[in-house]
Design brief:
With 604 residues, the protein is mostly helical. The chain contains 22 helices and four strands.
Length: 604
């Protein structure tokens, strides 16, 4: 007798209606038809070949003999190669930032003792401007690799890392600290191992905010790209080929055509990155929303759909990534036993030997750390003794002027980012339309277009002080906007539907749902924007254009000028004062708001 094929949806419908068809869980799984290689796989293979070619080209550049002062070619034909170099540096810095985020953020969020040290240390690192990292990083790495470009390239990557890592770490830390209580209780009942809790609970819960903060990190990296590829230490200058150097040289020479072409290349690179990388990630991360039902108009990505249909990607996943994942899982299971498991019994002598070795290792590490800290403090005091009390007084006044500018910039940014961010985050349609636009505008280095704006603003009342506020705003408002968008996107659909069912008015909806839901993300955005504003003061209060230098009174101007002149004593004093001010603001304001977010505005 011939067999009649019954589609799966018909069988399921009959089962729900009381039919006698075989239950789905008892039927053998239907074999998927074999996928042959097609044009999609050919395109993916070409992209992989291009990526390998770029890496080989960059590796030959890294291992070449050291050449501090290279000639930047302003010809349009050099732009694709420069864009590739800059993109590779940004990618390496982002990978380093992601590793740092997961390790540092996890330890700070889960270890109470470490939290007391690591969070204030993160405040300090966030408050130090990129130009303050520059002398030590460049001199150390160039001295470590004196005969090749490896030191310069690593210095550029590390400097870009300092503009990317902090807001990503704060975002992950906030997500790990505000996990719903029922999910925490379930992980304890299920006796998840620490690594399972990390991968199955913490990382998924942080994914939406982390992706949007990653976009902001890339925007921050593009913002400081010119400073990280043009390394100036007093009379010494180090240059690296890239878009940042191209834009810097074009701005210094007043070459408007080259400046426009460089900015257009950067915009094209950002759009391609959004279409092929960020938009697929946003669509993929929608599965991690904390809600009972799925939203009808979820984010989509044609690139993600293509990758899911690719036979090459499926083969790589099945034959390479899954076996590697199984091996890693087995190793982690051996290293981290189940919570409460006693393990293999040890003798008292083995326990005593283990305690002695572990205790000795801790003592050695603490002693080495203490010696390093004391040596650093000694050299710091040697430099600071050259700073007089009069200079300290001027630094305090300069810090007050910069504080007022950062406050004005934050208030202006907050006034427009809340309504715009909520509108984008609550509407997947507008999110798809405006996400690339926001990324492009946020990623354009304001330092490249600032000289053009400076010509128009310097004649207005306030002069460069007003222009400095504008540049701070251009560099920091995106931290708030991206976090607000992430907060609005993470609001569960069932809560939004409840406000519609109960006819909640617009203002009441904002007061009872939207503002409480985005509040933790808003605190993270304001904290990182505050630190970013102080960092941006270094490039907004001291501007060099077409061989001319324009500056205004402020702490950022003092730091930038002392770095350009090689006055390391004043540079250190200004950096320390900026770090103290930012830490005080974080401790007195943002930490309390973080505590409020954890107590009152957490789902579950």
């Amino acid at each position: 007798m011939a067999q009649v094929y019954i589609p799966e949806d018909v069988q399921e419908r009959e089962q729900l209606q009381g039919g006698s068809s075989t239950p789905r869980q008892n039927r053998p799984p239907r074999e998927e038809p074999h996928k042959g290689l097609g044009f999609i796989d050919l395109g993916i293979a070409l992209v992989l070949i291009a990526a390998v070619s770029l890496i080989i080209m960059a590796a030959s550049r890294w291992t070449a003999p050291l050449n501090p002062a290279i000639q930047i070619n302003l010809s349009p034909t050099a732009l694709p190669v420069y864009a590739g170099y800059s993109f590779l540096r940004m990618l390496l810095a982002y990978i380093l930032s992601l590793i740092f985020t997961f390790i540092y953020g996890h330890i700070a969020a889960t270890n109470k003792r470490a939290n007391m040290v690591m969070v204030p240390l993160l405040d300090i690192l966030q408050s130090i401007p990129i130009l303050s990292f520059l002398p030590g990083v460049v001199l150390a790495l160039v001295g470590l690799f004196p005969h090749s470009n490896i030191g310069l390239e690593l210095a550029s990557v590390v400097l870009i890392f300092t503009s990317q890592a902090w807001n990503m770490t704060f975002s992950y830390y906030h997500s790990a600290r505000t996990l719903p209580k029922d999910l925490k209780e379930f992980s304890s009942i299920a006796r998840l191992r620490p690594w399972q809790r990390f991968f199955k609970l913490e990382v998924p819960a942080s994914m939406i905010g982390l992706i949007w903060n990653s976009m902001m990190s890339w925007a921050g990296g593009w913002f400081f790209l010119m400073a990280s590829e043009q390394l100036v230490l007093g009379s010494r200058s180090f240059q690296l080929p890239g878009l940042g150097s191209y834009l810097k040289v074009a701005a210094d020479k007043g070459n408007a055509l080259a400046l426009i072409l460089g900015l257009l290349t950067l915009v094209a690179l950002i759009i391609l990155l959004d279409f092929f990388f960020w938009r697929p990630l946003v669509a993929w991360a929608d599965r991690f929303k904390l809600e009972m039902n799925s939203e009808g108009d979820a984010p989509t990505s044609p690139v993600l759909n293509i990758l899911r249909r690719s036979a090459l990607v499926g083969a790589l996943n099945q034959r390479l990534f899954q076996p590697i994942g199984s091996v890693i899982t087995g190793i982690l299971n051996c290293l981290q036993p189940l919570p409460g498991a006693t393990g293999v019994a040890r003798t008292d002598k083995e326990d005593q030997r283990r305690f002695t070795v572990g205790g000795l290792l801790k003592v050695v590490l603490l002693a080495a750390l203490l010696i390093g800290v004391l040596a650093g403090l000694w050299f710091m005091l040697l430099l600071l003794r050259n700073v007089s009390l009069v200079m300290w007084g001027q630094l305090v006044l300069a810090a007050g002027a910069t504080f007022l500018r950062t406050l004005v910039a934050l208030v202006i940014g907050l006034a427009w980012t809340i309504p715009v961010g909520v509108a984008i985050g609550l509407s997947p349609k507008w999110s798809r339309r405006l996400q690339p636009v926001v990324q492009v505008v946020a990623s354009i280095p304001a330092t490249a277009v600032f000289p053009i704006l400076l010509v128009a603003l310097v004649g207005l009342p306030g002069g460069l002080s007003l222009a400095a506020i504008l540049l701070m705003l251009l560099g920091t408002q995106w931290y708030m906007l991206f976090n607000i968008i992430a907060g609005a996107m993470s609001i569960p659909s069932d809560l939004k539907e409840a406000t519609t069912i109960y006819h909640v008015t617009r203002w009441r909806r904002w007061r009872t749902l939207i503002l409480p839901a985005i509040f933790p993300y808003l605190v993270t955005g304001m904290l990182t924007a505050s630190g970013g504003a102080w960092n941006a003061s270094v490039v907004s209060e001291y501007v060099t254009f077409n061989g001319k230098t324009v500056s205004t009174f402020g702490l950022g101007s003092v730091i930038a000028a002392s770095g350009a002149d090689g006055n390391f004593s004043l540079l250190l004093a200004g950096t320390l004062l900026m770090a103290v001010v930012v830490i005080l603001i974080n401790r007195l304001l943002w930490k309390r708001l973080y505590g409020l977010a954890e107590r009152r505005y957490t789902l579950g």
